[in-house]
Design goal:
Blueprint lengths: L9 H4 L7 H24 L4 H14 L5
Helix pairs in contact: 2-3
Amino acid sequence: MSNLSVSPTFSEVGYPPAISFRELWPWTLFAASILLFAIYMTGSYQGSATLHEFFHDGRHLLGFPCH
Protein backbone atom coordinates (compact mmCIF):
# COMPACT_ATOMS: atom_id res chain seq x y z
CA MET A 1 0.00 0.00 0.00
CA SER A 2 1.10 3.54 -0.59
CA ASN A 3 0.88 6.48 1.74
CA LEU A 4 -0.16 9.07 -0.85
CA SER A 5 -2.35 11.86 0.37
CA VAL A 6 -4.53 14.03 -1.81
CA SER A 7 -5.23 17.61 -0.84
CA PRO A 8 -8.89 18.60 -0.78
CA THR A 9 -10.31 20.58 -3.68
CA PHE A 10 -12.36 23.78 -3.57
CA SER A 11 -15.67 21.94 -3.58
CA GLU A 12 -14.61 19.70 -0.69
CA VAL A 13 -13.34 22.51 1.55
CA GLY A 14 -16.07 25.08 0.86
CA TYR A 15 -14.06 28.29 0.51
CA PRO A 16 -12.30 29.86 -2.50
CA PRO A 17 -8.53 29.87 -2.84
CA ALA A 18 -6.69 32.94 -1.61
CA ILE A 19 -5.87 35.65 -4.17
CA SER A 20 -2.60 37.44 -3.63
CA PHE A 21 -2.21 41.20 -3.86
CA ARG A 22 0.16 40.80 -6.83
CA GLU A 23 -2.57 39.00 -8.78
CA LEU A 24 -5.28 41.48 -7.81
CA TRP A 25 -3.38 44.77 -8.28
CA PRO A 26 -3.38 44.90 -12.14
CA TRP A 27 -7.13 44.27 -12.27
CA THR A 28 -7.78 46.93 -9.64
CA LEU A 29 -5.70 49.43 -11.60
CA PHE A 30 -7.53 48.53 -14.82
CA ALA A 31 -10.97 48.94 -13.21
CA ALA A 32 -9.97 52.28 -11.67
CA SER A 33 -8.71 53.58 -15.01
CA ILE A 34 -11.96 52.56 -16.74
CA LEU A 35 -13.96 54.29 -14.00
CA LEU A 36 -11.90 57.48 -14.23
CA PHE A 37 -12.21 57.49 -18.03
CA ALA A 38 -15.99 57.11 -17.76
CA ILE A 39 -16.20 60.02 -15.31
CA TYR A 40 -13.97 62.11 -17.59
CA MET A 41 -16.13 61.35 -20.63
CA THR A 42 -19.31 62.09 -18.71
CA GLY A 43 -17.99 65.37 -17.33
CA SER A 44 -16.16 66.84 -20.27
CA TYR A 45 -17.62 65.54 -23.52
CA GLN A 46 -19.34 68.28 -25.52
CA GLY A 47 -19.32 66.67 -28.98
CA SER A 48 -22.26 65.38 -30.97
CA ALA A 49 -25.84 65.77 -29.79
CA THR A 50 -26.36 62.00 -29.67
CA LEU A 51 -23.51 61.39 -27.23
CA HIS A 52 -24.47 64.49 -25.26
CA GLU A 53 -27.93 63.04 -24.71
CA PHE A 54 -26.38 59.69 -23.79
CA PHE A 55 -24.26 61.31 -21.06
CA HIS A 56 -26.85 63.94 -20.09
CA ASP A 57 -28.40 62.23 -17.05
CA GLY A 58 -25.01 61.03 -15.83
CA ARG A 59 -23.71 64.59 -15.93
CA HIS A 60 -26.52 65.80 -13.71
CA LEU A 61 -26.16 62.79 -11.41
CA LEU A 62 -22.45 63.54 -10.89
CA GLY A 63 -23.06 67.27 -10.45
CA PHE A 64 -21.56 68.50 -13.74
CA PRO A 65 -23.32 71.47 -15.35
CA CYS A 66 -24.14 70.99 -18.99
CA HIS A 67 -26.52 73.80 -19.91
